[in-house]
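Chapter review: from sequence to fold.
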Amino acid sequence: MAVYVMLSTLTDEGRKTLKSNPQRIKEVNKEVESMGGKILAQYAILGQYDFVNIIEAVGNTTIAKIALELGARGTLQTTTMAAISIDDLIASWK
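The token string follows.
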């Protein structure tokens, strides 16, 4: 399984949804899992982005599907990056 960092920013609609139903975050996490991802860690953050999620998925196609599905709802925008563990990076030089 591959690991990805997904940064997300709420739209105006997303902020309204979250204000009226904060538990929606947990519901979306379950939806991500139903699409083949697994939330390893999740944080609300301050600054340019609203949330950082560490997600495990089979590969690029799965995480792209997740990002597109979430973005198509109009409640958030995502930036997704592949993450490589330091141990895997070091091992690749051997």
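Two observations follow directly from the output. Residues 2-91 form a domain with the Alpha-Beta Plaits fold (CATH 3.30.70.60). Residues 57 and 63 are 6 Å apart (CA to CA).
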